[in-house]
Design a protein that fits this description.
The structure holds 2 protein chains of 2 kinds. By secondary structure, chain A is mainly beta. Chain A has no helices and 9 strands. In chain A, strands 1, 3, 4, 7, 8 and 9 form a 6-stranded mixed beta sheet that branches. In chain A, strands 2-6-5 form a 3-stranded antiparallel beta sheet, with no helix packed on it. In chain A, strand 5 and strand 6 (about 70-75) form a beta hairpin. The termini of chain A are far apart. The model of chain B has no long low-confidence stretch (mean pLDDT about 95). The chains are: A mainly beta, B mainly beta. The interface of A and B includes residues 38, 96, 97 and 99 of A.
């Protein structure tokens, strides 16, 4: 059982927007502004997409955005493209550890 | 260009030991906190542990499932991170990734090395 809770799947059509939620507790998501999101394509290493709740690393399209309210963080992908189809994992700083969500498989229909 | 290259994975019997290495390049390794993350086949990501930089004491933290069995260390003269795994169990079977670590996020990842624990 993962420390953070994500829906197992999400989907959208090209051009649409989709939001993936990630729920934790006051000991992780709710206690720090250190939520990050990772994209993983099959057989590849994860890639950082969002860090510190809302920041995007260089090279990540601005179609990807993050937010947080209380103990729940969200990743929104706008203008869905075929290459966005992947697994997405949320993560949070939790003091002396890092916790991950179970992952969400995003399908672009 | 930042590169992290893991090595040392393979097949080991339950109760055995293995040491993974991660050679870093393209950044100032001795100023980087580092972590290990693993992913069991078909499963999600699991944080294994992290090591601070030497000037922060070189302390380590571990996830509960590996504490007391796994040890993270670093050799800054070789730009290399290590993961010593003892008393391996079948549930330790996974791809092991080394990553950089800063304020809870993992910016750079290696390609991973597969560890299989099987009789």
């Amino acid at each position: 059982q993962s420390a953070l809770t994500q829906p197992p799947s999400a989907s959208g059509s090209p051009g649409q927007s989709v939001t993936i939620s990630c729920t934790g507790t006051s000991s992780d998501i709710g206690g720090y502004n250190y939520v990050s999101w990772y994209q993983q394509h099959p057989g590849k290493a994860p890639k950082l997409m969002i860090y510190e709740v809302t920041k995007r690393p260089s090279g990540v399209p601005d179609r990807f955005s993050g937010s947080k309210s209380g103990n729940t963080a969200s990743l929104t992908v706008s203008g869905l493209q075929a290459e966005d189809e992947a697994d997405y994992y949320c993560s949070s700083y939790a003091g002396r550890s890092v916790v991950f969500g179970g992952g969400t498989k995003l399908a672009v229909l | 260009e930042v590169q992290l290259v893991e090595s040392g994975g393979g097949l080991v019997k339950p109760g055995g030991s293995l040491r993974l290495s991660c050679e870093a390049s393209g950044f100032t390794f001795n100023q980087a906190w580092m972590t290990w993350v693993r992913q069991a086949p078909g499963k999600g990501l699991e944080w294994v542990g992290r090591i601070y930089i030497q000037s922060d004491g070189g302390a380590t933290d571990y996830a509960a499932p590996v504490k007391g069995r796994f040890t993270i260390s670093r050799d800054d003269s070789k730009n290399t991170l290590y993961l010593q795994m003892n008393s391996l169990q079948t549930e330790d079977t996974a791809v092991y990734y080394c990553t950089t670590y800063l304020r809870g996020y993992l910016e750079y990842w290696g390609h991973g090395t597969l560890v299989t624990v099987s009789p």
